[in-house]
Write a structure and sequence with these properties.
This is Cullin family profile domain-containing protein. It contains 34 helices and eleven strands. Strand 1 and strand 2 form a beta hairpin.
């Protein structure tokens, strides 16, 4: 009969006693005794005994709880602790070595875990603290022995000359070792759970530290943490084995970088090992160090094989790959950041100068993606200032090449606007409209635009003139406004704004007088832009010019009424043409050369009548006729083409009217034309070229002999074979190229105006300050005129000397560098 059956038989024989002392029995079962232990931990054996007794005919009762009436009589045998401890330790050793190929018990059958748990529980219940401490130390030794066996087996399986494939095999073995260790350690932890509870329960906190013989204290860990700590000590704190592990992991990561092997799944297991062993930084540092070495070698080779633009694509791709790889290879945020920084250092920082050298090619080819990449790469290493300098230098060099190309001055502004448009796109898309790059662009444009101080300002004025003359004939209103705005930006960069004003005023005057403006709204819009940009003083003369034209229209209405009345009073016939005269205020309009010409009788008579009317209306004023600015619309009869309406200049009309007196086919020599018109050779040749040597549909005269140039011995005849499908034909005058003397004269006129402006600015400052230092006066003068032009300090000093001579100011005696205003 088993011990359980004997106890059950005795319990049935004393039923009444059990009933009287039921509560005491319950208490006894929960507190101690082997019977109580068996009732709790060996319920399966008790149930089996009950079934056996029932089969023998013993009458069964409702479930009975077995209790010990005399606990001292049911204690385990005296040698139970020693035997149970030995068996428990042996079982722990077997559990730790079941999956280990190196263990002596490899392949053995696993001992019953419930029995081991019960044994541990019994020992914990009936053993002293010293005995339990010894049991803990013995288990610790077994765990250390097992970990050592695993480590030795893994170490022996490695070799010094590892290939990538063998490294992966070895790491797979390490992953298996770690998996087996965790599985075995989990079983040991579950079996020894009562031991853990005895040390680490709330009431046993003081027992977690045991005094040693030398007086020191040793930290005691739960079984699971103890197993991890020992594994970490054996595998990761051993210099040789940890070196093997980390070097092979680094090699595997490098293989994955080179897309040689798939490694991510294996690394997940190994990363979990380092994470549970609290060694995340160790793994991260090894991978970061390997990244430094890997990318140092690869970037050096790539830089030698690739062009700078190709290398930018390569570096950007590699850094993006490393950022994604870091998310699963590295275990800490700090490690991930260091790994990407290491790749960035080797790929970008070490080759930054060569990367920046590729900027001109990217800008020239307008590779926005490449520029965005180079911006990101350089920004990541905090060297945007170098990129900005290289970008600014590119703008200055290529912009100066356009400005200094004197042979292509005619299309300088178009090329500058195209260049600016490409730079705008690069700054906006490639450099994310970085404010520093926007400022660098502005500064660079200002530098190269003023390489030729006056020419860009002059050409901007001519460009605006061309756009305002063609206007919405060749583009929409929105496109015209865009062109005006872009040209105005170039105007902002120029220092010689007074030079721009001079040329713009000349072209503006011709557009007004010749009615060449395509849109009056565009003209007024441009004036508003200039006024907002430079102030009302800048556009005052231009606004006065518009006012003169408007007043002239009212004046001509008055003249028409006067002419009608005069013809009625004198009973004179009406003129065969309509007269329109613009009376201009000379001080506000550009000066034009006075070209003498002999007007036809009817034109001369009309001019005299208007002058008489004007003198009568405005006594004391004198008119100066500018026939070079006049235009006529004349009706002409051609033999084959029929009647055409020609829009020509006054000089062209005078020449054409000479042929009214000739028979068909009759010729006029160059000398005859010069004598009858009174024009100088230069002006006459330009006029005849436009009538006889221009485009074929505009050749209303024929030159004999044919040719592009007009010579003194040439002859001209009316072109009866003229052909042109249009009824109204505009014959443009051949533009006279500006000579060096005329250019110099214009510049001298501007320079003279500058001197007067400087004098006026200095006097204004002196009048306000009364006394002022030399340096302060220079600063004040520069501030006042900087919106119109720039000037050297030497020029300002000359102005001061002139003002001293004119007695507008004087030097203060005894105070060096001090001036006083003289009223």
């Amino acid at each position: 009969m088993s011990l359980a059956e004997a106890l059950l038989s005795r319990a049935q024989a004393n039923t009444s006693a059990l009933a009287d002392r039921g509560s005491a029995s319950s208490a006894g079962a929960s507190t101690g005794g082997l019977a109580a232990f068996l009732a709790r931990a060996g319920s399966s054996h008790t149930n089996a005994a009950t079934v056996t007794l029932a089969d023998k005919g013993v009458r069964t009762r409702p479930p009975v709880q077995i209790a010990s009436f005399h606990p001292e009589r049911t204690l385990p045998p005296a040698n139970y602790a020693s035997q149970a401890t030995t068996q428990l330790v042996r079982s722990v050793r077997m559990l730790l070595s079941l999956s280990s190929q190196a263990g002596p018990n490899a392949g053995a059958v696993r001992p019953p875990l419930q029995q081991l748990y019960s044994t541990t529980h019994t020992l914990v219940t009936h053993s002293s603290a010293e005995a339990l401490a010894d049991l803990y130390d013995t288990v610790k030794i077994e765990i250390e022995r097992a970990a050592g066996s695993f480590a030795a087996a893994l170490h022996s399986s490695g070799s010094t000359n590892e290939t990538l494939a063998s490294s992966i095999t070895w790491l797979n073995q390490l992953s298996s070792v770690w998996s087996d260790w965790c599985e075995s350690l989990a079983l040991v932890r579950d079996v020894l759970l009562p031991l853990d509870r005895s040390f680490f329960s709330t009431g046993a906190a003081a027992a977690s530290v045991r005094p040693e013989s030398d007086g020191s204290e040793q930290r005691r860990l739960p079984i699971w943490d103890l197993g991890l700590d020992i594994f970490a000590h054996r595998f990761l704190k051993d210099a040789t084995l940890s070196g093997m592990i980390l070097s092979r992991i680094a090699a595997a990561v490098d293989g994955e970088r080179g897309q040689t092997i798939p490694y991510r799944d294996l690394h997940t297991s190994l990363a979990d090992m380092f994470r549970q062993l609290k060694a995340e930084e160790m793994l991260d540092q090894a991978i970061v160090s390997a990244a430094n070495v890997f990318y140092q070698a690869e970037s050096t080779a790539s830089m030698a094989d690739l062009s700078p633009t190709q290398y930018v694509d390569y570096a950007d791709r590699r850094i993006n790959e490393e950022q994604h790889r870091s998310q699963w290879v590295l275990l800490t945020d700090g490690g991930r950041a260091e790994n990407v920084a290491a790749a960035r250092k080797q790929l970008v920082a070490q080759h930054a100068d060569k990367i920046l050298a590729g900027l001109p090619d990217l800008v020239s080819c307008k590779q926005l993606d490449g520029l965005a990449k180079i911006y990101q790469l350089v920004h990541s290493i905090s060297r945007l200032s170098d990129l900005r300098k290289a970008f600014a230098e590119y703008i200055k060099i290529h912009g100066a090449a356009i400005v200094n190309d004197r042979e292509r001055d005619d299309d300088m502004i178009e090329r500058l606007l195209e260049f600016k448009s490409s730079i705008d796109t690069i700054v906006s898309s490639g450099f994310k409209r970085d404010g520093e790059f926007v400022n660098a662009q502005k500064d660079s444009f200002e530098v190269f635009v003023n390489k030729r101080e006056n020419k860009p300002a002059e050409l901007v004025a001519k460009f605006l003139d061309a756009k305002l003359r063609s206007g919405n004939k060749t583009m929409t209103d929105q496109e015209l406004e865009h062109n005006l705005d872009e040209a105005l930006i170039l105007f902002r960069y120029t220092h010689a704004k007074d030079m721009f004003e001079e040329f713009y005023k000349r072209h503006f005057a011709k557009r007004l007088l010749l009615n060449r403006s395509a849109s009056s709204d565009a003209e007024r819009s441009m004036l508003l832009k200039l006024k907002a940009e430079c102030g009302p003083e800048f556009t005052a003369k231009l606004e006065t010019m518009i006012k003169d034209v408007d007043v002239s229209k009212d004046l001509m209405d008055e003249y028409e009424r006067f002419a009608v009345k005069q013809r009625k009073d004198e009973d004179s016939p009406m003129d065969d043409f309509d007269l329109s005269v613009s009376v201009l205020t000379q001080a506000h309009w550009p000066t034009y050369p006075n070209i003498e010409v002999s007007l036809p009788a009817e034109l001369a008579a009309a001019a005299e009548r208007f002058e008489a009317f004007y003198q009568k209306r405005n006594s004391g004023r004198r008119l100066h006729w500018q026939h070079s600015l006049g235009t006529l619309s004349i009706t002409t009869q051609f033999g084959k083409a029929g009647v055409k309406e020609l829009h020509v200049s006054t000089f062209q009309a005078i020449v054409l009217m000479l042929f009214n007196k000739l028979e068909s086919g009759q010729k006029l020599s160059y000398n005859d034309i010069r004598t009858q018109t009174g024009l100088k050779d230069e002006e006459l040749k330009r006029t005849l070229q436009s009538l006889a040597c221009g485009q074929i549909p505009t050749r209303v005269l024929r030159k004999l002999p044919q040719g592009k140039d007009v010579n003194d011995d040439d002859e001209f005849t009316f072109n009866d074979n003229f052909k042109n499908e249009r009824h109204r034909i505009r014959i443009n005058q051949i533009q006279m190229k500006e000579t060096a003397e005329e250019q110099k004269s214009t510049e001298q006129r501007v320079f003279l105006d500058r001197e007067l402006i400087l004098q006026a600015a200095a006097v204004r400052v002196l009048k306000a300050k009364k006394t002022i230092k030399h340096s302060e006066l220079i600063t004040e003068v520069v501030d006042q005129i900087k919106s119109r032009f720039t000037v050297d300090v030497a020029e300002i000093k000359k102005v001061f000397e002139i003002l001293i001579e004119k007695e507008y100011m004087e030097r203060v005696e005894g105070q060096r560098g001090m001036y006083r205003y003289l009223a």
